[in-house]
Predict the 3D structure of the following.
Amino acid sequence: MSLSFWEKESFINYDFIIVGSGILGLSVACEIKENDPKRSVLVLEKGILPSGASTKNAGFACFGSLTEILSDFERIGEAETIELVKNRYDGINILRERLGDEKTGLLNYGGYELINGDHLDSLERIDEINNKLKFIFPDITFELTNFQISEFGFNQEEVKAMVYSRFESQIDTGRMMSSLIEYSGSLGVKIINGCKVDMINEKENYVKLITENYSGKEKISFNAKSVIVCTNAFTEKFYPELNIKPGRGQVIITKPVKGLKFKGVFHFDEGFYYFRNFGERVIFGGGRNMDFETEETSEFESNEIILKDLKNKLDDVILPGMEYEVDYSWSGIMGFNDSKRPEIKQISDRITAAISCNGMGIALSSFIAKKIRKIVDP
Ligand SMILES: Cc1cc2nc3c(=O)[nH]c(=O)nc-3n(C[C@H](O)[C@H](O)[C@H](O)COP(=O)(O)OP(=O)(O)OC[C@H]3O[C@@H](n4cnc5c(N)ncnc54)[C@H](O)[C@@H]3O)c2cc1C
């Protein structure tokens, strides 16, 4: 048994094949089609749904909190940090233009960083940072908003100061990804789900993608002139030399909390913890720093140590004295490279692999997708 003539004619050969239908893969597909509708573009996705980080995240449309920016200054230098902040902000704006705020569920309630006793010295640098970012944002980026600590009901023993940014927003992750899939389809991008790419073989003038799926007894392969690998945490299978490591993230969601006092996206502990409202619910994630070793995995499982820590922090810091119930929890898998920066790697003239995200893919992916398109289809 083999593929029919019709299947071979109409389903197998493309100008571009993208592996992975997360936000990055889909954004690359859209960029290629928006730039030239005549290009044929196929996206192959191993899951029935996108199955990495893009449908599992917390939905922060953020560019970096004050202490994250200061810690990145030390790690990668000022110029690179500021460029990254700009790329994230540009990326959010590209996504907004592409889909519109209704289809991403974007709400601009702003973002806040909760500062504990260990990071109070960072507050002295707010003016300096605002000054450095003023060419990116149309107004002051960060401002102190300590009076809201009690208004929001946070534990004042733990939260010593709070920094607000009006440019951070929240999205409805599910609605955004569903809209992006729909929009890709409207451009003529084909997506095949439940199709796991097993091998990527470069031939003389095309690339052959061998999948784990069968037509009768024959494995199905697809051919493309150019392949873009957007498999994030799962890239090691194809290109271990890129050293992209998986990092699992745990998330819990409460049932609607009666009288919830805050709206917005919130970060603390240099971004290791993050929470937000979704209507009257609270979505709370992070805590990988509690158990880094176990969380360096691509298995979607829960980690009881971290879930317990998240619940303790809900009780002690975020919702002290409030009645609430955890509804359920889930996990998602991020990809991290050594530099913690987006990377576009040309494996050959016909194969490009990209990782944009390192935990901030909502913001960065649309920007990186534009750069990828310029490389693969100049
Ligand atoms: C818990 C959690 C919270 C987060 N919160 C935020 C946040 O609030 N804000 C933010 O900006 N970012 C957040 N992130 C990070 C963000 O979700 C990611 O940076 C982004 O989704 C990465 O997109 P991607 O397309 O590169 O990768 P992914 O979404 O991981 O997509 C990769 C895709 O490739 C597919 N794939 C893998 N191997 C194969 C194969 N062999 N064949 C076919 N398909 C394959 C996978 O199934 C997957 O769908 C969070 C991540 C997690 C896990």
Notes: The first strand starts at residue 13 and ends at 19.
